[in-house]
Sequence to fold (189 residues):
Amino acid sequence: MRYGREEIERSGTVNFNLDGVLRRSKVARGSLYHHFKSREGFIVALEFERSYTRKMQELEVLRTFFYSATRDEEIFQALEAGLVAAGKDEGRLRRQHRIETLAASMRSSEIQRILADSQIAGTAHFRETLENTAKRGIITLRAPIDGVAYLLQSMFVGRILVDLVDDERVDADWVKATMATIRYLLGGK
Fold:
């Protein structure tokens, strides 16, 4: 698993080199297939671990900001700072890996199922964060909560289109437009 994690971080899902992982780990192909049934099964296990763990960590950080806020503006300032930071190289790389995994899921029902399960769990977590923050009167939801939760998450993945342009002005404009959308959906000024 350790060598598989390194390979998926380095090469992504599409270019994953199983032979290299087996060579570095000194694990026999038959042993790997005994546990994971196939190359795809191994990638599914790795991707689930990576995407679910990362997503839940990000959602916990987000929840901390939402739950510690006493005003909507505190949430919006923290989100904007996070969006600016996510425009840097590490954020771009994470979006690239996410897009590669989404592309691989179009050819693999196993990967698609794992990603869907991860998305459902993550959205339930985010929905709970939004609900609790709204109950405290910090935000006011202006659209159905499930729609808000999915829309906001899809905007962040969709930022890959801005990454392709590789223009700081376009990225800054995307952050401004995203924040205007978030402010509207969550009841900000």
Notes: DSSP finds ten helices and no strands in the chain. The CA atoms of residues 52 and 118 lie 6 Å apart.
